[in-house]
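Exam review. A common question shows you a sequence with its structure tokens and asks you to describe the fold in words. Practice with the pair below. Do the first one on your own.
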Amino acid sequence: GCPGVDALDDSVWQARLPPPVKARPVGTRLWLAPADDTQAPKGRLVVRISMGLAFGTGEHPTTALCLDWLERQIASGATMLDYGCGSGILALAALALGARYAYAVDNDPQALTAARANAVLNDAGEALFVGAPEALPVVAVDVLAANILAGPLVDLAPTFAERVVPGGMLVLSGIL
């Protein structure tokens, strides 16, 4: 073995994994559920999330705040960009809430893999673009959400301004 490196039994590291998504309501219309949960209450719009290796179960306060905001603000037929999409949760929520098209971008390949898997899980089909920021088509959206680190939020401000239609909405959240 390597000096200073100990092999751990699986039970040790598995116990430290984040807990799976817990099924729960978001606002008055959404229901957030793990991939295998089929018990959504009647009248709720369901977003299913399989974690994989990406941030975005809806449990983190910044994600929960963004979901609450989207639940109140997304208009039917809107377009939405989830910048730094992680699991794709915000874009998928926007589609469930009636957005006609959403874009989910992230510079982490694992996040894009998770977002694509969640898109399939939620039958997003052709209504969702998932890709790296540089692959994003030239587009301006009605709503742009970015739930990422504070530094990148500041650095990306000019990009965000170009990506939102005049009079559009911008929701910025994240961590220092």
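Now try the second one, then compare your answer with the model answer below.
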Amino acid sequence: MIKEYEIIVLCVFFVVWLISMIHSRRILWLRKQAEKAVSKEPIPAQQLPGLSVILTTYNQEELLRKHLPLMLEQEYPAEFEVIVVDMNSSDETLQYLEQTEKRYHNLHYTSVPNSSRNVSVMRLAITLGMKAAANDWTILTNASCAPKSHHWLKQMGQACVEKEETNIVIGYTSIKRNRFKNARKARFFHFWQQIRNLRYATRHGAYRAEANNLGYRRSFFLQNKGFMEGNRLQAGATEILVNHNSTRANTTICVHPEAVVEVDLPHNEGWWRQERLFFMETRSHFRHKNPYRMQYLGSSLLIWLLTLTTFTAIATFALSLPDWYAVGIIAAITVFWQINSFHRIVCYNKVCKTMGEHTFSPLLPYFLHTIIWWDIAAWIQWRMTPKRTFHIKPL
């Protein structure tokens, strides 16, 4: 006969299992948003805003040669320009820009002054781009980014004027497949975080946004005096900017599949580790962070909670073997666990297919179980790193 404590363990398992099933379906939200964006009536060409693409670069001549023409040759029915801001590159970047400017009338470039060493070069570069922009709407990106469609600007432009009160547009970015050691981890982690960031932005305002595919009103930037905080930090320029100025009302997301930008990561084994380390310092300067972190932590721990309750339930009924009911319940628990895993993989694959991402099916369970450990490792490394590491060194 089934015991009382066994009933409690079984009920806990099924409650957690049901919550996990519902949570897995929540990621389909991104797919629905993308399908909704595709089905919308396009805004007439005469209503699209002029756009100024601000592209920052540092020693990325090779990437500029690959990606800059894709931006300059966008099929955008309204006026647009591309402003390249060079951050004191020591390669042939300026020579390439000088040659390319002769072929494209909508290309302009400038450089950060060599004497500007006591402030963040990235913040100064974006500020210079904003001041040089001829249009009120700017699209922030960098040399490592490449639009996956010739209609990238068209979709971003439509998102800019979708709501009158919009000042910030957060576009979707994917990470290009790469052979370096942590490439697949970085791609999954970026994908997993974007799902949460974009959903949070529509409900509360953006928690963060990188300068890969970001629309920002020039007048809004100048009105809020640009980068008022964090000027001494080496990283996190646009993330702090967006976190401090985004609200639910003034922020729109653009997840149309044609608006996706692909990021070409450095061929550097330690890049991902350093990126997460510097973000730990950046997020310490964020506002309205506790609600997001609670949701983020809940998502990270849910997969472990399901695994724990599953094995606890199996171990509990294993004590009652060889009773017939124990065998049946253990088999049922195993089947339900497998159903949950299969359902999660299907949901992730659907979203990946819609957004043009490569699927993570073989390693998905492993990645979901290790997210929390990646964050803990980055947090420990951040706590052990001297604070001066994250700040601009004074002359």
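Model answer, second protein: The mean pLDDT is 90. Residues 86 and 111 are 5 Å apart (CA to CA). Full marks require stating both points clearly.
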